[in-house]
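Troubleshooting entry. The earlier prediction with flavin mononucleotide gave an output that would not parse, so I re-checked the input for stray whitespace and re-submitted. Clean input:
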Amino acid sequence: MKKAGFFCVILVVFAGLAGAQENRSGVQAILNHSAARNFTAGAVSQGDLDQILLAGIRSPSANNRQPWMFTVVRSPALARQIVSNNEDGNLLIVISAEGDGRTNGSQILDCALAAQSMYLAAQALGYGSRIYTGPINSINQRLKDQLALPSGHNAVVLVRVGRVQGNVDAQSAASSRAAVDTKVQYK
Ligand SMILES: Cc1cc2nc3c(=O)[nH]c(=O)nc-3n(C[C@H](O)[C@H](O)[C@H](O)COP(=O)(O)O)c2cc1C
C-alpha cells in the first residue's frame, strides 16, 4: 500500500514536469514565429485549416462578444485581387466585424487577437503565415460583395496561410526586434 502511494507521488511529479515542459514549448512557438515571405503553391489540408480556424474562434474578445466573421478565400483569382502575389493553395482568412472600425476600438483589438492566434497556429502546424492590413481599404471599397461579408461588416485584418519553402528557418528569416530594455519599463 505504501509502495502504491509512493508511485502515485512519482507519477504526479512527472505529470507536473511534463505539463511544465509543454508550456515551455508553447512559449517557444510564440518566440520563434516569423512573417512568411517565401510562400509557394500547395494545399493547406482541411483538417489543418479547421485547427487554425478553431484557434481564431477560441481567441479572447472584449465581453466575449466574438464580433468577427472569418471568410476563407479559396478562389485563386479572388485571392490574387487581394494579395497580388498569392500562390495557388495559399488561403486568405479575412477577418471582418460590424462597423467601420473607428466606433468600437475593442473590435479591432478582438480581430487582431484572432489574427495573431491563427497566424501562430498555422506556423505551429508547419505552414507559413503572414498578417496583412495593406489590402483592407481596397477590400472594403471594392470586394465586400464578392466576399459576401455579413451586412454591416468591414474587413479589419487578414491572415495568409500557405506552404513555404522549407529551407529558411524561422529565426533567421525574422526581422530584428528592439532590445527588451528599450521597450519594457518597471516602476
Ligand atoms: C497589423 C499588421 C499588419 C501587417 N500588414 C502587412 C501588409 O500589409 N503587408 C505585408 O507584407 N506584411 C504585413 N505585416 C507583416 C509585418 O510586416 C511583419 O509581421 C513584421 O515586419 C515582422 O516581420 P518578421 O516576422 O519577419 O520579423 C503586417 C503585420 C501586422 C502585425
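This one parsed fine. Strands lie at 68-73, 91-98, 128-132, 153-162.
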